[in-house]
Design goal:
- InterPro entries: UPF0250_YbeD-like, YbeD-like_sf.
- Pfam families: DUF493 (PF04359).
- This is UPF0250 protein F506_22285.
- Belongs to the UPF0250 family.
- The protein is an alpha+beta fold and about 90 residues long.
- It has a single domain, classed as Alpha-Beta Plaits.
- Helix 1 runs antiparallel to helix 2.
- A 4-stranded antiparallel beta sheet has the order 2-3-1-4, with helices on one face.
- It is elongated, with a radius of gyration of 14 Å.
- Helices cover about 25% and strands about 30% of the residues.
Length: about 90
């Protein structure tokens, strides 16, 4: 993955940054994602999670707003979320 110099980043740090995580509907999905996000953003609060089930209830979309402090932090969080077996995709 190419490294983007800080001066070319479209994101100013620190800033609030929304991330959408979509996974299969499961009782533990939200808690697992909250725990993963908190590992990368200790200031994250579960009250910042927006939940939206799919029309047929098979999937759950979570929007988590993290306090982004660096590109490295966001990259690490995206990698962790994307690699989890319950996650279908991360936007």
């Amino acid at each position: 993955m190419p490294v983007i110099p800080a001066e070319e980043s479209l994101i100013e740090y620190p800033s609030d940054f929304p991330i959408k995580v979509v996974g299969v509907m499961h009782d533990e999905f939200t808690d697992i994602i909250i725990n993963m996000v908190t590992e990368h953003d200790p200031t994250f609060h579960a009250g910042k999670v927006e939940m939206r089930p799919s029309t047929q209830g098979k999937y759950l979309s979570l929007t988590v707003t993290v306090r982004a402090t660096s590109r490295e932090q966001l990259d690490n969080l995206y990698r962790a979320l994307s690699s989890h077996e319950m996650v279908k995709f991360v936007l």
